[in-house]
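User: I'll paste a sequence; please echo it back and then give the predicted structure.

Assistant: Echoing your sequence first, then the prediction.
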Amino acid sequence: MIIRTVQPQYPLRRWFILGLFMCGMTVLISRAAYLQLWNKDILQEQGDARSIRVVEIPAHRGVITDRNGEQLAMSTPVESIWANPRKALDDAEKLPALAKALDMSIKDLKDLLRGRVSRDFIYLKRHAIPDVVEAVQAIAIKGVSTLSEYKRYYPAAEVTSHIIGFTNIDDQGQEGLELAYNDWLAGESGAKRVLKDRLNRVIENIESIKTPRPGKDLILSIDRRVQYLAYRELAAAVKHHRAKSGSLVMLDINTGEVIAMVGQPSYNPNNRGGLKSQFYRNRALTDVFEPGSTMKPFTIAAGLEYGNFQPHTRIDTAPGYIKVGEHTIRDMHNYGDINVTKVITKSSNVGATKIALSLEPKKYWEALNSFGFGQLTGSGFPGESSGILNSYNTWSDVEIATLSFGYGLSVTPLQLAHAYSVLATGGVMLPVSFIKVSGTVSGKRVLPESTARQVRKMMETVVSSEGTGKRAAVRGYRVIGKTGTVHKSTRGGYSDDRYLSLFAGIAPASDPRYVMVVLIDEPRGNGYFGGVVAAPVFARVMEGAFRILNIAPDNLPAITSPIMANRPDLELDEGFDG
């Protein structure tokens, strides 16, 4: 017999449960309709808060070029990798791949993220190379994204590093002209509103809020070709003489522009890892030294202007030394009875001393001060030193004597070059400029033209076969100059075996265009005199610069035409074209 079990029916319960479902659905539909149709703004705000962001648009820093438009500093776009530590840690299974892409250990990466878990933004790698950026983006880890920035690049590297300087990782000037003209070069960042996905990647640009303003370009007075030539020759000289350091400055005397300025040792601003700050300074502007015999032209200029001296005035330097108080001042040789011109030609300390001691101290000080000693050159370069020129009220006879041949005051290579430019311009001092100058430049007359011309003529003998600077001669050109060999000051006096080798020169002599100062610090071996160490550097750089800058020779040997040789009675007039 089959027994069937009849299942009890609960219609009321079924309808009750069904009613509950219907009520719940009605509430949800009503709520959704309310939010979507009548109160949709709040949903829009919440959605925007999760996906729409305002991001900064970095501004392009201005380009630095030389006077001919060759780029010396430029900014290139790069990507930096950043993270939200909390979100990145939530995607822990991808952290090993991220650490590998960043060339980090997984432990270091986790320690970095955990140590800053309270922050919403940290950098993982600034200015990453493209391969690293692509690898990180391929991992697609939560909370890790990239940010567009700019990185500064210096094409000339060590050749211009002491002038240009460099920026930090945030593209702000830290040294050199990058620091001096930071406000000019730096742009103003912009902003835009963008739509991002869950991986914080920009998928749509919504609107521009603020347009970025790029920085302004800076055109320098430097000629990159001459700068490279000067760098090469100075580096070779420092290496050859096993010197401690070296500096070279070249000025255009018509405009006051710096055409070249180099220093050794140098550094690569594109890769500064492990470098010490001592390599960053521009020695041509920051380091001071006693100029030695390169001061004698200014002593003689003071003698011509304020004393009873002329180029032919006789001075007895016998027996080769002179007693000033308890001190004895000596020459290399006993030059006997010589004229003022020979004082420069032979670099006589005794002759310079007698000229200086005959002058009123105040007038002598005024003469040196008018050449810019003890003052800034006005270049505007960060950290420039003004040197030291003590007041005449404190001078003793010994101090006046030593001052006449360059001891007892301090100058920078740029200061010395600036002072020589006054002689080159005929007594007019122009401001020094690292920026390309357009048009004429007005200066201040500090010396009569006739006096400057007389001193230049006397200085030309220094580069003759009889002078101390004959190795500074440049083929095809007349050169004006002065050598200097200085005992370095040490604790307790002057060293007997540590020297500064100097040469300061002007060329071409017939129509001066450029001034150059070469300083070699502590040369060892193969001589140490300025005429042996520094003068040849001047000659090589100036000769190459004249060729680059297309400066016409003023000292070519006379060429006798066959017609003139056969007809000595024949005279050429201005209309002759042969």
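The chain has two domains: 55-219, 224-549. Residues 11-38 form the longest helix (28 residues).
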